Amino acid sequence: MSVHSKPFPRCVITASTGGAVMNQCLGNPWFKSLIHSVVCDRPCGAADSARRHGVPVEIFAEPDGEKFCGRLLEYLQAAKIDLVFSFYTKFYADSLRKAYADRLVNLHPTLLPAFKCNDAWEYVKSYGVRFAGSTVEFIHERMDEGKIILQTVYPWDDTRPPDFTRHRIFVQQCKSLLQVARW
After folding, report:
1. For 84-115, how does the pLDDT look when each residue is reduced to its tens digit (9 = 90+)?
2. Chain mean position to CA 47
3. Coil, strand, or helix at residue 141?
4. Which entry of 36, 108, 140, 167 is annotated as an active-site residue?
5. Is beta strand 131-138 parallel, antiparallel or unpaired with respect to 148-155?
6. What's the order of all strands across the beta sheet hosting 35-40?
7. What pLDDT does 160 receive?
8. Phi and psi for 119 in degrees, rounded to 5?
9. Low-confidence ranges of the chain (pLDDT < 70)
10. Residue 108 annotated in active site
11. Percentage of residues in the chain with pLDDT exceeding 70?
12. For residue 42, what is the DSSP state?
């Protein structure tokens, strides 16, 4: 190993969604090589996609978020995970946020801090914005208010259906995940 090279981080993806961005990015061999596993809080599309890519999947179907986060933290520490890419739709417990400060990366489908929460896309569509976009942030004390790592922006075009813009943002999210992983 040369003095200028460093080992790649060991990463986990957490998800409770369909996993479309994750699925697209796992098609990149370099990105896939970083991913130790995908951890879900329930059976979901992301778990199915990960399995199709040959990535190990863990499902911690706990009755509440606190117990899920406790199991997740134990798992991350035991596997010596460096970084977590999050598609988890609930807010992580304080103990996990503190143990993985600046190592929990949230991929949000809108521009933060303007459009927070899980239904943010619905607000974007109805608000009359001139630009839409996505945000990659470190998860901190309050949901969708962490340090911003990267944002993308795309002009809103009222002459096109909202799904057109949504797809453009999806493409930006995929590129953003790969870029942040490289950084």
Report:
1. 999 988 889 999 999 999 999 999 887 777 65
2. 14
3. coil
4. 108
5. antiparallel
6. 57-59, 35-40, 11-15, 83-87, 104-108, 131-138, 148-155
7. 85
8. -100, 25
9. 1-7, 114-127, 129, 144
10. yes
11. 87
12. S
Nearest CA among 85, 43, 99 for reference residue 182: 85
**What is d(CA 143, CA 104) in angstroms, rounded to the nearest whole number?**
12
Distance separating alpha carbons of residues 61 and 71, to the nearest angstrom: 10
Average of per-residue pLDDT values in the chain: 87
Q: What is the DSSP letter of 109?
A: S
User: For the purposes of burial, counting CB atoms within 10 Å of the CB of 103, is it exposed (0-12), middle (13-18) or buried (19 or more)?
Assistant: middle
- Written as one string, the DSSP assignment of 78-107 is HTT--EEEEE-SSPPPHHHHHHTTTTEEEE
Q: What pLDDT score does 9 carry? A: 85
Residue 129 tokens read as 């914005």
Token pair of 84 as six digits: 């977590």
Residue with the two structure tokens 């010596």: 80
Rounded to whole angstroms, the Cα distance separating 43 from 130 reads 37
H helices of the chain, in order, are 20-26, 29-34, 45-52, 65-78, 94-99, 120-127, 162-182
Burial class (CB in 10 A: 0-12, 13-18, 19+), 90: middle
| Pick from 99, 91, 108, 102: nearest CA to 142 | 91
